[in-house]
Amino acid sequence: MRFRLTPRETSFYDMFAASADNIVTGSKLLMELLGADSSARAEIAERMRAAEHAGDDATHAIFHQLNSSFITPFDREDIYNLASSLDDIMDFMEEAVDLVVLYQIEELPKGVEQQIEVLSRAAELTAEAMPNLRTMDNLTEYWIEVNRLENQADQIHRKLLAHLFNGKYDAIEVMKLKQVVDVLEEAADAFEHVANTVETIAVKES
């Protein structure tokens, strides 16, 4: 890491860690949704909405700190991109749960559980990685693994689309289910965006 003579605002590290921990909460609610019957899903959606609002608050706090800090731990643009990508993950996860409830989907297609398992693992890795931004240590394996998980998510998504279009579902049901699996795929992409931003920061700081 480069040696610096100027002090840096360090509260960003704690805020990024808190944002990532909140994403773990969201991923657990996604897992909970899988095992819930339709009557319990509305309550899970409410808790997910609360988690998404907490994520928004965390993002706004980072932006406020960014605008009020003269010295930042790394490039302002990278701080903005990292905070925005973390926020995107929560937005996509909350949207997926909301769609399941709004569309009154009785049964999710086989393969969605694999999507959610990938997101859950990516959430754990991201939460473990954020505190390491302080030292930039032990981050290479993180972004390599998240990129591998995103590739896995792509494969699962393609198989799900093939399943949805195999003629077993009516057209309206296909449209509903496709929206859900597409949003979960966007969440996986957002995890990759976070990992890529962390890699960019680490390269600049090396």
Provide a compact summary of the structure.
The chain is mostly helical and 206 residues long. It has helices spanning 11-34, 38-68, 76-102, 112-129, 140-164, 171-205.
Strand content: under 5%
DSSP summary, beta strand count: 0
**For the report, how would you describe the main beta sheet?**
none
Uncertain stretches of 5 or more adjacent residues: 1-7
Overall geometry comes to globular
Helix content: over 70%
Sheet/helix structural class: mainly alpha
H/E order of the elements?
HHHHHH
Radius of gyration: 18 Å
Mean pLDDT rating: 93
| Individual helix count | 6
Distance between the termini: 5 Å
Question: What's the helix and strand layout?
Answer:
Layout: H1 11-34, H2 38-68, H3 76-102, H4 112-129, H5 140-164, H6 171-205
Structure description:
- The protein has 206 residues and is mostly helical.
- The chain has helices spanning 11-34, 38-68, 76-102, 112-129, 140-164, 171-205.
- Helix 1 packs antiparallel against helix 2 (38-68).
- The model is unreliable at 1-7 (pLDDT under 50).
- This is DUF47 family protein.
- Belongs to the UPF0111 family.
- InterPro entries: PhoU-like_sf (IPR038078), Put_Phosphate_transp_reg (IPR018445), UPF0111_domain (IPR052912).
- Pfam families: PhoU_div.
Q: What distinguishing features does this structure have?
A:
206 residues, DUF47 family protein, PhoU-like_sf, Put_Phosphate_transp_reg, UPF0111_domain
